[in-house]
Amino acid sequence: MIASGKELLKLTIVWTDPVPTTLSKENELNDRTKMLVNDLDVRVYKDNAEVGLPWRLDPANPAQAAAKGDNNIDNVEQIVIDSPEAGAVYTIKEL
């Protein structure tokens, strides 16, 4: 995609994930067992350099603000580039 430089760039990927074959204890609150079957990853590059990572929450510190990094928990990933360079070409890659 080519940035206008007038607004932020926002990319969101969402998918329906199948039910995992091994479920954790029923009704367990805040279960940390990995449940994602298909862990899709998306990144944004400019001039072959990685410039966009998805937001992620830290389950061990739920009060902490979201940070950018590899999200291997959710079936929704969003990348926001706040100040894209006008006319720059940004490449989206699904890893």
Topology overview:
Layout: E1 9-14, E2 42-46, E3 49-52, E4 55-56, E5 67-68, E6 76-81, E7 90-94
Antiparallel strand pairs: 1-6, 2-3, 2-7, 4-5
Give an account of the 3D structure:
InterPro entries: Galactose-bd-like_sf (IPR008979). The protein has one domain (1-16, 39-95). The protein starts with 8 loop residues before the first strand and ends with a strand. The radius of gyration is 16 Å and the shape is elongated. The chain has a three-stranded antiparallel β-sheet, with no helix packed on it. It has a two-stranded antiparallel ribbon with strand order 1-6. A two-stranded antiparallel ribbon has the order 4-5. It has strands spanning 9-14, 42-46, 49-52, 55-56, 67-68, 76-81, 90-94. It is an all-beta fold.
Quickly give the structural class.
mainly beta
Return residue spans where pLDDT drops below 50 for at least 5 consecutive residues. none
> How would you state the average pLDDT, rounded?
89
- Major sheet characteristics: 3 strands, antiparallel
Helix-strand pattern:
EEEEEEE
The outline comes out as: elongated
**Count of distinct structural domains:** 1
Q: What separation lies between the terminal Cα atoms? A: 18 Å
Q: Count of DSSP helices?
A: 0
- The residue fraction in helices comes out at under 10%
Cα radius of gyration in angstroms: 16 Å
